[in-house]
Every structure is written in C-alpha cells, then in structure tokens.
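Annual report, structural modelling task.

Input specification for the adenosine-5'-diphosphate complex:
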Amino acid sequence: MKIVAFANYKGGVGKTTSVVNTSRALQQNGHKVMVVDLDPQGNSTLTLSRRNPFEHEMTVGNLLSDKDVNLESCVVNTPVGVDLVPTNLNSYPLVSLLPPNSAKRIYGLKNKLSEADASYDFILIDCPPQIEGALITNAIAASDYYILPIEGESVYALQGVDHLVQAVDLIREDTGSSIRLLGALVTMVDTRTNAGRLVMEAINKYFGDMVFDTVIRRNTTINKANLNNRCVCDLDPKSSGCLDYQAFSKELVARIGSGK
Ligand SMILES: Nc1ncnc2c1ncn2[C@@H]1O[C@H](COP(=O)(O)OP(=O)(O)O)[C@@H](O)[C@H]1O
Ligand SMILES: [Mg+2]
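The model returned the following structure:
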C-alpha cells in the first residue's frame, strides 16, 4: 500500500481533477484504491460519491478529531468502485479547533490510515490549497509520496514552488515522515500557444526528470465531467482527458511499483 498526496498551495491547478481521475484509472486497471478528501471544499467527495458533501455524516473531520471514530466507519463505497473518505466544510472547525499541542493535528491521519485494509494498493489524498495548517501537516505526515500538479498554461506556475517544497521538507523532518516528491504533473497543457511552450520549458528546466512524461492536455471534456460529477473516462473514454489520465496512472505505477 502506497499513500500519495496531491499537493500545491495554489487552487485551480488540477489537484482534485487529478486525484479523481487517477483513482478511477488505477481502479480500472485492477488496483484497489481509496481517496481521502482533505480539502473541506469537498470537490472530490462530490465527484466520486455523486452526493452533496453535506449529506455525508462521517467525514475526515470526524476521523481526525475523534479518537473513537475508526477509519471503517468513515469509508464510503462510491459508484465508480473507488473507496472514499469524504469531507465537507464542517471538517474545518473540527480540525482547526484541535488544541495546538494535540498529536491529532499531526499524526491523526497517519494513525487512522494504519488501520486501513492491507488490500488497498493506493491511497490518494486530495490536499487543500495551503502551505501550512493541520490538514496539510496530516497529509505530509501520513504520505509516502507527493505529486505536485502544476498548471502548464500559467506563467505563474512556478511561483512559490520553492516554498512549498521547503515547507514539505520542514514538516517531513518535524514529523519523521518519509514523504518524497514523486514528480510534477503538468496539467491544462496547451503546447500550441507560445505561452504554453515557454511555461513547459521553464517547468522542465526547474524539475528536470522529476516532471512526469505524461502531461494532461487542456480538454473541455474534463470540465464537462467535473460539472456532471463524473470521471472523464466514464463520460468519454476516447477523450484526450481520459487517455492522458490513463497514461499518467500507468506512469505513476511504474514510478512507485505496483503498490503491493
Ligand atoms: N486538463 C484540463 N482541461 C480543462 N480543464 C481542466 C483540466 N484540469 C482541470 N480543469 C478545470 O480547472 C478547474 C480547476 O481544477 P481542479 O481540479 O478543481 O483544481 P484544484 O483542485 O487544484 O483547485 C476546474 O474547473 C476543472 O474542471
Ligand atoms: Mg481541489
């Protein structure tokens, strides 16, 4: 079992889209997958469960804040065959009101995931767009790897990446985590434009071979799938979005090993 966080302190870079569609692609390839939604906005909760996040009674907020809540009581089986620990905005106060010196602020998720069924191959964590805070600290303490989704079209894509990598390094040291960067995943790529090409060059120069070979192209079907709470491969298996996430999931498995 490998635990992989998708993290970037920026919003709108494709974290949730990547978690949701990578989880589905892994599941379609025969892997057993669980998604932990750590972003209280609950976007991956909505897409995967196809239910309003507030309909979920037991969330990651309960899991992290209450020692008597076990993992099993929070796991939801979703229509796409991926298991999910859902969240909603109620998780914010539950986690942020934990006392500052509470071990749950750091190790809550790690401890609870240690109860996870060993038959899971991958646990993917959708992180909130933050650089610090109890949720991100929990994600870093619990994960084996992190993937940095980067928006391939934004000239500001690399701004602040140093800080994020440094913040992860600091939290890793403080928490005794063995988390490491698995790679940068470039999303919303449009290499037909000059700006797109320049951003891609800058990202390759910065990350070198840590950039995944697979890039996720800009694709309107992805947007349509998100709007309809569907995975892109369930909406249109021939779309570039589906093909890209399938290719990416294979590259991820190759980088990590099968997860067993
Ligand atoms: N490859 C893509 N092509 C087109 N739109 C995309 C693509 N990836 C993400 N989007 C859209 O970009 C927006 C932000 O994506 P999202 O995954 O929610 O980012 P984050 O979780 O980092 O905030 C959403 O509206 C989503 O539908
Ligand atoms: Mg998101």
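The two ends are 6 Å apart (CA to CA).
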